[in-house]
Amino acid sequence: MPFALSYVLVFLVSFATLRAVIALSQKYQLFIDSSHSSKPQRFHYQPTPRAGGVGILAGVLVGFGALCLQNIGLQYFEAFGSEWVHFLIAGVVVFASGFLEDMGVSLSPKLRLLIQCIGASIVCAGMSNAWLRDLGLGFEFPFWLGLAFGVFAVVGVCNAINIIDGFNGLSGGVALCVCASIIIVSTQVDMPLIASVAAIMMSATLGFLVLNFPSGKIFLGDGGAYFLGFGLAMILVLLTQEPSSIVSPWYGFCVMIYPIWEVLFSIVRKVSVGKSAMQPDSLHLHMLLFKRLRNNPLTSLIIVCVNIPFIAIATLFYANTLVLMITCVAFIIGYVLVYRLFRM
Questions:
Q1: pLDDT of residue 43
Q2: Tens digits of per-residue pLDDT, 276-329?
Q3: Mapped to the 3 state alphabet, what secondary structure does the chain carry?
């Protein structure tokens, strides 16, 4: 099967699975996110299924199966069989930590974090170069410390994608742009397997996005958000931590600066006023923008478009740590200024 057809297949599987989920949800009231819930992050007005992650996971699994049949899959079959299976197992574990919540099974935030740490540990310990040995600071960590940082980073990105979720097309749109950047960079540095995995993630996400934006027929859900964050985090770790890679570790931080800074800023903001960092609220930047615009899809479109220049800079200067650092600082300063303006 030609490469392009494989990615079309991934898109179709994701799209068809979610069409079936929508139909079943309407008939049997499954995975429904009520429009009358008291969640502070609720900004929809119709009961909507929150199982978008099911389609993305299905597409990714089919994509990995197709990858094994490609020339690239055969070339790396030994590595795929012995290592990438950890990626899939860990992804399913992380997905389950949120999907149980989507099904109505209440899990405490600490238990969800524990499950995510287990999933991240499976892949960080089971795959070569899947731990953070180098942060671009001029020294390398020993394995045990790099493993701990790797698990922390993966779990952090999982929750970062979940935090920016809530508006039609926001998390999916950001993920799509990041995948496109990874494909470009990994192709330039001759890491075709990483490019293929990113393309699989991108195609599966697109199958969800066409149903989520702008109409909001289905939501990503906690399971989908965690799985997307997991996939992006692991691809970036593998891309930047390969010993022969010239991609700066700061590329991963820069290309994901919006969701990463959103979660860091939110933690500091909540703790500074005596609230739990795990307690949800309606004071995230995208929520403040929505309160001014009163338009769900437009809110997402504006934020994604504002992030595209920063993702583009990360893509162009993927090997230049100094430029990537400056770009991150510029984003953070701009974010804080805009946030203060919206809170006035």
A1: 53
A2: 888 888 899 999 999 999 999 999 999 999 999 999 999 999 999 999 999 999
A3: CCHHHHHHHHHHHHHHHHHHHHHHHHHHCCCEECCCCCCCCCCCCCCEECCHHHHHHHHHHHHHHHHHHCHHHHHCHHHHHHHHHHHHHHHHHHHHHHHHHHCCCCCCHHHHHHHHHHHHHHHHHHCCCCCCCECCCCCECCHHHHHHHHHHHHHHHHHHHHHHCCCCCHHHHHHHHHHHHHHHHHHHCCCHHHHHHHHHHHHHHHHHHHHHCCCCCCCCHHHHHHHHHHHHHHHHHHHHHCCCCCCCHHHHHHHCHHHHHHHHHHHHHHHHCCCCCCCCCCCCHHHHHHHHHCCHHHHHHHHHHHHHHHHHHHHHCCCCHHHHHHHHHHHHHHHHHHHHHHHC
Query: pTM for the full model?
Result: 0.93
pLDDT in tens, 26-47: 888 888 875 555 555 555 557 8
